[in-house]
């Protein structure tokens, strides 16, 4: 599959041209949906006149997410003198940005049919990528920071999908990568009829996420220089690519960190105008943010 040469405006159009994408689009029909409050929640928080009462009424329909948010609101990170017992109170304490982050992370967690070490690492990877992408978007001013958070959060959604569809095959794939039997892209196609980028993008398209987010998920590993996906999606893909490498350098979601990974030399880093000092500052900020919030995002895992 040569996704960097695809044209067209939608994932479905791309799938008509490429068998791997068509396989991915067919496979997502067998995957569980994210929490059923997600679409309504995202619509509600996009309203400039949103009200805590309305947001709370939506979230409360998912007990797991409700419990997670209340736990965070009462954690030492927000050390208050009084107990927060309502979602409206939690929203007032945490703010909409944190609430959105918690809902999205909990929604990713809900995708997993089981939750062991593999699933924990995948969720940590998603959270780390989200935090780093948000920080990078803020630093560069090149993209909306909350949309960048989603781009980082969902960049490896395809890995979660693979693990759900065929957990034994996914375990063999991860072991093969760990054993040095080949690169991830080649090994993915040995065990699945698609790569994780393809099925991740297919899944977001299936859920009717914004086209820029679908496209950036498809291209996150290798943003195309010609930008056939449009300027906005191309910028998001570059932010997500840099965030992904920062997480790998730190070892977030991996068995081992990769301290010698070159991030400055990435085309995405150059195109975003990042130098070595920028990258080191971003890595430090990501490390601190992840260490401070990982337990909150992971909930009771």
Helix content: 55-70%
Spans where pLDDT lies below 50 across 5 or more residues: 1-7
Helical stretch tally: 17
Largest sheet: none
Notes on the protein architecture:
With 301 residues, this protein is an all-alpha fold. The protein folds into 2 domains: 3-32 and 114-298, Hypothetical protein af1432, CATH 1.10.3210.10; 33-110, no CATH class. It is 65% helix and 0% strand. The longest helix has 24 residues, at 117-140. It starts with 10 loop residues before the first helix and ends with a helix. The model is unreliable at 1-7 (pLDDT under 50).
Task: Based on the model shown, name its key terms.
globular; Hypothetical protein af1432; disordered N terminus; 0% strand; 2 domains; 17 helices; 301 residues
In short:
This protein is mainly α. The longest helix has 24 residues, at 117-140.
List the helices and strands and how they pair.
Blueprint: H1 11-17, H2 19-27, H3 38-45, H4 52-59, H5 63-73, H6 87-94, H7 96-110, H8 117-140, H9 145-154, H10 157-165, H11 167-178, H12 184-191, H13 196-206, H14 211-219, H15 231-250, H16 267-271, H17 276-298
């Amino acid at each position: 599959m040569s996704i960097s040469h695809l044209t067209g405006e939608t994932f479905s159009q791309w799938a008509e041209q490429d068998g791997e994408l068509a396989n991915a689009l067919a496979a997502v029909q067998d995957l569980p949906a994210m929490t059923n409050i997600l679409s309504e929640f995202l619509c509600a928080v996009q309203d400039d006149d949103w009200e805590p009462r309305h947001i709370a009424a939506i979230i409360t329909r998912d007990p797991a997410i409700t419990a997670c948010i209340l736990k965070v609101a009462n954690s030492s990170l927000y050390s208050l003198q009084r107990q927060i017992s309502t979602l409206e109170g939690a929203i007032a304490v945490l703010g909409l940005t944190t609430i959105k982050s918690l809902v999205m992370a909990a929604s990713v967690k809900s995708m997993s049919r089981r939750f062991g070490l593999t699933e924990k690492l995948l969720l940590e990877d998603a959270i780390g990528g989200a935090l780093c992408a948000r920080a990078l978007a803020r630093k560069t001013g090149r993209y909306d920071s909350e949309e960048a958070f989603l781009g980082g959060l969902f960049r490896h959604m395809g890995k979660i999908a693979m693990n759900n569809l065929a957990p034994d095959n996914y375990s063999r794939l991860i072991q093969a990568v760990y054993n040095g039997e080949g690169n991830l892209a080649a090994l993915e196609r040995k065990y699945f009829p698609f790569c994780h980028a393809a099925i991740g993008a297919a899944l977001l398209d299936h859920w009717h996420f914004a086209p820029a987010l679908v496209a950036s998920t498809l291209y996150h590993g290798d943003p195309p220089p010609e930008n056939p996906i449009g300027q906005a999606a191309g910028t998001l893909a570059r932010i997500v690519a840099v965030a992904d490498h920062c997480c790998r350098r730190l070892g977030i979601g991996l068995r081992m960190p990769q301290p010698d990974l070159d991030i400055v030399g990435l085309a995405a880093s150059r195109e975003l105008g990042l130098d070595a000092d920028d990258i080191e500052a971003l890595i430090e900020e990501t490390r601190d943010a992840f260490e401070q919030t990982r337990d909150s995002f992971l909930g009771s895992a």
